[in-house]
Amino acid sequence: MIFFAETEYLEFYTVLVLFWTPLDFQFATFSLLVVFYVYLLYKREWQNKKRLVFLIYGFSVFGMFAMTTVYIIVGDRMGLSNIKSLEKAHHLYMSVQLTILV
Predict the structure, then answer these.
(1) What is the band of 92 on the pLDDT scale with cuts at 50, 70, 90?
(2) What is the CA radius of gyration of the chain?
(3) CA 88, CA 56: separation in Å to the nearest integer?
(4) d(CA 44, CA 48)
(5) Which of 12, 49, 50, 70 pairs with 6 at a CA distance of 20 to 30 A?
(6) Are 31 and 101 in contact (CB under 8 A)?
């Protein structure tokens, strides 16, 4: 867990938000590299492809945040005792998404 986020001082929901949302920000930042590489590869056609690229970028980042929000809501309802299986599913989903970017 996060060193300053002890469950006895914070709500469990807050701990889940602090623990899982940095992965979404990492995904959003890392996927900007993909947008930059598309720009470098298609400089001449960039004006035509820019809207499509940013649309795909927006949907993928929004999808990540939406899935993490669902995981946080489900994790908060499951409680601390059953969180391990949900945590594994979330990390597997995030690793697959980051691997697709590469």
Answers:
(1) confident
(2) 17
(3) 26
(4) 9
(5) 70
(6) yes
Q: Where are the domains of the chain?
A: 12-101
Residue of 54, 55, 69, 68 whose CA lies nearest to 97: 68
What is the distance between the alpha carbons of residues 19 and 22, in angstroms, rounded to a whole number? 7
**DSSP secondary structure code for residue 102 in this structure:** -
- What is this structure's pTM? 0.73
Residue type, 71: Y
Other Cβ atoms within 10 Å of 2 Cβ, number: 10
User: How deeply is 68 buried, as exposed, middle or buried, from its count of CB atoms within 10 A (0-12, 13-18, 19+)?
Assistant: buried
Strand, helix or coil at 38?
A: helix
- At CA 10, angle to CA 9 and CA 13, rounded to 5? 155
The whole-number pLDDT of residue 54 equals 94
